[in-house]
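Lecture 7 notes: from sequence to structure.

We start with a single chain of 243 residues. Read the sequence below before looking at the structure.
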Amino acid sequence: METQYQTWVNGAQLISFPAGVSASAANDVLNSHLLAQVCANQDGVVTANPRAWFQRSVDGLAQLMWSTQSTQSDVSRFGNLDDLSIVALVAKHLRKKLPTVIFKQMTGMLEQICELDYEHPARQLFRTQVLDRNVGAHGTKRTAINFQLSACTAPDQVFSLFVSLTLAVPLQQDFLHQAFYGVDSPGDGLFFYSHKELSVARYARLREMTVAALAGDAVSLRQRLPVVTATPATLEGGANGRV
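Now the structure, written as tokens:
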């Protein structure tokens, strides 16, 4: 029976924190997602049309032997929240969808990040990835959030679960109208996620090609933060923290 790796993939893949699976398994999962990200990010579609970006990412993963079991989109109201407040809301949202062990790993990693000294390189990297400020086409300053957090476990079953999430959230009203369509309330952000499975046996034929294609982007894409074990964790006080 061939091994399957299952994943919930949400939004733009930017940064991953794998734990609990073999290095080769983690590389298969991460490299395939990173290559799909590189392809999906072409032509600025990630900011111009989030729905088109998501579909392009899905198509790219399909070419890398990921089969999509289900896809959903959600609209969550975030308003003018800071980065930790948004992370706390997402964690609360995912509590209903994720196995307890995975949820504890995810929130545990966030707590470790938040406990680091403010100048710690890992904390600065996290802040850079979560809050990406830039200037829009009309000179309007806007804040785009692209945040991915991943956790892995290696249970006795023949697959490992890989959890990831990303936000694309407008923090200013004018950014909402520039970057999204189909959302007309300030503070709303599109929240996509899908359930996928990777056929390792079929992906093996593409492994070398994937690694070669990522060679120029690996340094910037494969950044890592400290890994934590699955211990009970919450995000209490996160809204008042500084990341």
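Residues 23-40 form the longest helix (18 residues). Keep this in mind for problem set 3.
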